Amino acid sequence: MSTEDTPAWPLWATDHDAAGPAAPQEASTLGLAAPCPECGMPVRPDQRYCENCGADVHPDLAFGASGGAASEATVKLNRPRPARRACLECGGEVDADGYCQTCGAKAPSPRDHFEAAPASWLGGVCDRGVVHARNEDAMALWTAAEPDRSAVLVVCDGVSSSQDSDVAAMAAAETARDVLADAVRGLAGSPDGGDTDPGTGPLHRALVEAAARANDAVVAHTAPDSENAASCTFAAAVVVGDRVHWAGLGDSRVYLLTDTAQVQLSTDHSGAEELIRAGVPREQAETGLHAHAITRWLGRDAEDVVPDTGVHPVTGTGWLLVCTDGLWNYASAPGALAEQLLAAGSDGADPVAVASRLVKWANAQGGKDNVTVALARLEANLNGASQAPTAIAAESTDAPGTSVEEKI
Amino acid sequence: MALFTSAVYQNEFLPDGGTDVNAIVTIACSGAGAAGQTGSGDAGEIIIVDTSGSMGNANMAAAKQAAMVALDHILDGTYFAVVAGNHKAYLAYPMVQSGAGMVRMDARTRAEARRAIGYFRADGGTAMGNWLNLARALFDSIGHLAQKHAILLTDGENHNETQQQLDLAIRNCVGQFQVDCRGVGVDWKVAEIRKIAQALLGTVDIIPNPSQLGQAFAELMQASMARGVAAADLRVWIPQGAQVLFVRQVSPTVEDLTGRGVGINPLTAAYPTGSWGDEERDYHLQIRLPAKSVGQEQLAARVQLAVGNEVLTQGLVKAKWSSDTNLTAQINPEVAHYTGQTELARAIQEGLQAKATGDERTATTKLGRAAQLAAETGNAEATAKLRKVVDIDDAETGTVRLKRGVAKADEMALDTASTKTTRIRG
């Protein structure tokens, strides 16, 4: 078989070239099973990815389809589909049938494993993990054009007990990313980002707005008759100048891990956090029965979608990490995570390479959940922290644990 | 161009630590067209008729008539030749001493060939290796034939050459042309003829009564002329570190292909399957993989049908390790069916062999197992043929008694049909 080009595979599906991938609207209204454009197997109209080969059945659709114009720096996933894909297991070439030509390992679908690298210092990996059948984590990154080192990192963890969370989480992350990117662009020109009063300034308002719009996106991707409305967590970080502005809702986390500070900026809205508040030791609380039950989330059945927000100065060199519990399950304390970062070759390395190693490590620990690792390399002088650090307390705008409902 | 499609039947779930993957791959061909007419190249047919003394007047007359019928079914334009065989091999038609040993079929050459066949006379011994060697030389004399097929008719044992001479001749013909073999009467040896047919990708059958020869030759030639795909390979890719335990054709007949693979690259072997008409064939593969951890999935094999260097269809055999015994314990029905059919063929052949050597105990056990498997897998033809050789007391337990005074033809018919399988579907 020729490996030079991606063949129109398989050759027995004689009509697939003529028909092309059916428009999704058409397919869903007619209930037709349009064949997968990659392997020709029938695909249910509601499926975004081919069950057989994992190909994107509707590559003409951008992720999320929430309409927000993505910036020029955004990495468009799977479009155009790269002619050659390297096997994640052995480095061999992945065949058009979705399996490695050397070791036979199944290449994950673009939804099950994707990477983003908007800049040499900003990138991340979003992965299905080992145990879960699909990847309901989502990640969206943005950076301004060089030399501006402003960045937006958004991570959402779709709640696996709800329906369509994979699609909803992706829509939420991308929507929030676009809202925050617009806000950062609006600050352009102001030396301190125009954010004179970080607790209530434009980036604080943008983070709250981003969560609200992300919530709209989740609701928009929830079937009206869904009995188990799609829902997801929300963790966002915006780097402008020498500050990290963050927001959190649920149990995805924002960490700042530099040579001068190793802190978890966000606070979980989870059963575990409630136990910690009640005096149970962190380690015990985070491994308890309802540790992963989140008490706040985005979605149609969410009562309150205003996230916790805060600001933190960047005073050293290191990493801003936004991740889902698929990572911090295996290293929760900032110090433990910093150690894993170091083990992953974090000293000056490419963020996607570091994130990939962290994902591999989490999968090697069992990979019990989807894993998302988004990283921004922060360097005090480059990120503008030339003046003395201003002590700005992380401020929670909403006390967690007020909801009686729980999601697991 | 012919259209090939494939389907894979397997239980892809392996238990923790499981290494062996079984799959049935069905390959179907449609739109094959006629031999030599589809632009893939010219076709050649050689009719080989046993003219040894043992044929006698009756068999010889029937064989001549059958050979003439076969001529009628060779499409005009097809290269052909007629070989008369005894302890030597003679080119009966075309009547040339050198140069091209085959001519194109048309009204004139057909009439001339008929006349040549009319002169056949039963005389001499039998040396089938010589016949095959001549056939190979005749095909080679044309040089550009894409599809080469012969019909071989015999009535007796290969008395006039050694086993080694026949084996060498067969070996030299492997991959050169295909041969369908037919034995008339009961004085020939099934194992000897089956060896030729299996190596040369053909069929073997008994024609107990010479009056059936004409019909048999007509059908053989029609089938050959309907194979518009000259030659195809079954290609099997396995991952690095994996091992092909076996590759068998299991339908329409059982043929072990395992040792016939030719390396295409370090991970892919090509197994010749000969020419194809509009038909379906099933293949059973068993692949051994290094075990992966529960939750992982990988490809165990890519099974492709290739004509030349063009891969026309591909089936994927997968492995998924699971801790769910409800999934891993299931045996795929197609795999179970063909595993039974393969064992059935072996039980019949071993049972008949034991019977021939006087080992009635082994014969009873083996043929009893055969009766059991034939019933289990719904192979009515095998059951009917077994009934002529054994009394089946209880098919479910495989309890049989050897019949006394069994007709030789019935035993041979059971033997030649032993590799024929039934399909689980349709």
Overall number of strands of chain B: 20
The stretches of 5 or more residues of chain B where confidence is low (pLDDT under 50) are none
The CATH architecture assignment of the largest domain in chain B turns out to be 3-Layer(aba) Sandwich
Total of helices of chain B: 11
Mean pLDDT of chain A: 77
The first-level CATH class name of the domain at 109-378 in chain A? Alpha Beta
User: What Rg of chain A is obtained from the alpha carbons, in whole angstroms?
Assistant: 21 Å
- Adjacency order of strands in the biggest sheet of chain A: 3-4-15-14-10-11
What does this protein structure show overall?
The complex is a heterodimer of chains A (408) and B (426). Chain A contains nine helices and 15 strands. Chain A has a domain at 109-378: PPM-type phosphatase domain (Phosphatase 2c, domain 1, 4-Layer Sandwich). Chain A is globular and about 55 Å long. Residues 1-33, 59-82 and 385-406 of chain A have low confidence and may be disordered. Chain A is an alpha+beta fold and 408 residues long. Chain A has a six-stranded antiparallel β-sheet with strand order 3-4-15-14-10-11. The N and C termini of chain A lie far apart (47 Å). In chain A, a hairpin with a 2-residue loop joins strand 3 and strand 4. In chain A, helix 3 (165-186) packs antiparallel against helix 4 (202-220). With 426 residues, chain B is of the alpha+beta class. Chain B has three domains: 3-33 and 229-330, Immunoglobulin-like; 42-225, Rossmann fold (3-Layer(aba) Sandwich), CATH 3.40.50.410; 334-416, Four Helix Bundle (Hemerythrin (Met), subunit A). In chain B, 33% of the residues lie in helices and 33% in strands. Chain B has helices at residues 56-73, 107-118, 128-142, 163-173, 190-199, 213-225, 325-328, 333-356, 360-376, 380-387, 408-416; strands at 3-9, 13-14, 20-30, 42-50, 79-85, 89-93, 103-104, 145-154, 178-184, 204-207, 229-237, 243-251, 255-256, 262-265, 268-276, 279-288, 297-307, 310-321, 390-394, 399-402. In chain B, the strands form four sheets. In chain B, strands 4, 5, 6, 7, 8, 9 and 10 form a seven-stranded mixed β-sheet that branches. Chain B has a six-stranded mixed β-sheet with strand order 2-18-17-11-15-14, with no helix packed on it. A five-stranded antiparallel β-sheet of chain B has the order 1-3-16-12-13, covered by helices on one side. In chain B, strand 12 (243-251) and strand 13 (255-256) form a beta hairpin. Chain B is globular and about 70 Å long. The two termini of chain B are 26 Å apart. The mean pLDDT of chain B is 94.
